[in-house]
Amino acid sequence: MTIESLDRPELGVLGRQIALSAREIDALTRTAIDHVAAARPLSGGALHGEVRVVVRICLDWLIQRLNGEPVDAPTAGLEAAAAGCAGAGIPIDTVLHAVNEGFKVGLDLMAYPRPADTLGVVTGIGRVVELSKLVTAAVSKAYVREYKADVAEHQTATHNLTSALLGGQPAARELLFAAEYFVLAIALPPHPDESRPGLDRQVVARRKLRRLQSALATQLGGEALSLLSVDGGTVLVPSTARTDAELDGLVRALADAARVPITATVVTARPDEVPGAARQAHELLDTAQRMGLEPGVHRFAELALVHQLSRPGIARELLGNHLTPLDAHPELRETLRIYIDTDLSRLRSAEHLGVHPNTVDYRLRRIGELTGFDPARANGLWYLRSALIARMGLVRNSA
After folding, report:
1. What is the C-alpha separation between 66 and 11, in angstroms, rounded?
2. How many Cβ atoms are within 10 Å of 1's Cβ, its own excluded?
3. Do residue 250 and residue 209 come from a single domain?
């Protein structure tokens, strides 16, 4: 690509030509670089390497413009030099500062002993502004391209590492693993805007996911590994990045960013245990959702009994059958569930059901008569609660 808007000849601004040797232009370049180095020192001679090339190109173009000559050189050289700056980790504002310093040094070449030369000053400044806009665009384009390439490379490496861990691939041992991971299974509910008329549901869902991914990168500095969709997924958090106690705050921060409540379960695992831990975490997440647990982080110790009781097997079927006498009395089964969920509170159960507390007492007595397990006794309540959990597993499998 060439600088098409500057490829036309015009009158010079000095009434004379600026004739400088390559050595003199190099000296001007060093002057500009020294000005920048005084304000923004960089290690490793970066300013006198990559940035110097950028400034040298811009000074050449400036002198051509001040002489009224067209600038018909392609921008590829400038973009390549700017890409080198980006690759060296030099901030783009430092590069643009150096370019502006170069233009200032170049403008010092204009000496006007007569007031009549004011028009030449205005013309020269106009050409500098014109050139500055084009240089800024070229440098910015190069930086964006390098940034996208770096992001793509990082995403590919991260995806490969995550897939290797979750897939238990033997070849993945060559990759850099943490000693231990918190394996998080997370569920993302729909954002309210996903069902709002006039809005594209898929676009809203993708924005929710991008907010979550951005927050994850910000919170953990790129250390987390994840495979996520708009409905949730798996996140691997190195144990060096967060403690178990800090996971609650992490999930709250992610929920705030995604603008939806997040339910998560966590299992700790070494790298070779990650595949099994991920399966277990998602099974626990399924259990937590079926139990209607509140959003937040739920751990294996909290869900172990519920999880085990809901697993397929003869024991689950036997437990679930304890509630068969209540099948013809759905109000009794609902009363039992709410009574347990309200921590055995008659008053709260009555309030939730919209009935008198005496009605709750009556229903609890009827449950005891029909099932043979008295909910007022610890042993009976344990069996009834276990039967409810087993029933949830049976209903899920039959659905």
Report:
1. 9
2. 9
3. yes
User: Alpha-carbon distance 265 to 307, whole Å?
Assistant: 12
Please answer whether residues 122 and 89 qualify as being in contact, where contact means their C-beta atoms are separated by less than 8 angstroms: no
Structural domain including 127 reads 4-148
Q: How far is Cα of residue 341 from the mean position of the Cα atoms in its chain?
A: 36
Check: pTM over 0.90? Answer yes or no: no
Give the tokens for residue 53.
Answer: 């090339």
Distance of CA 73 to the CA centre of its chain: 40
Please tell me whether residues 73 and 144 are part of one structural domain.
yes
Determine, yes or no, domain membership for 206: yes
Query: Do 237 and 304 fall within a single domain?
Result: yes
Examine residue 54 and state whether it is found in any structural domain, yes or no: yes
Same domain, 12 and 129: yes
List pLDDT tens digits, range 303-319.
766 666 666 656 566 66
Query: What is the tens place of the pLDDT at every residue in 188-218?
Result: 999 999 988 888 889 899 999 989 988 888 8
How many CA atoms are closer than 13 Å to the CA of 9, on its beta-carbon side? 0
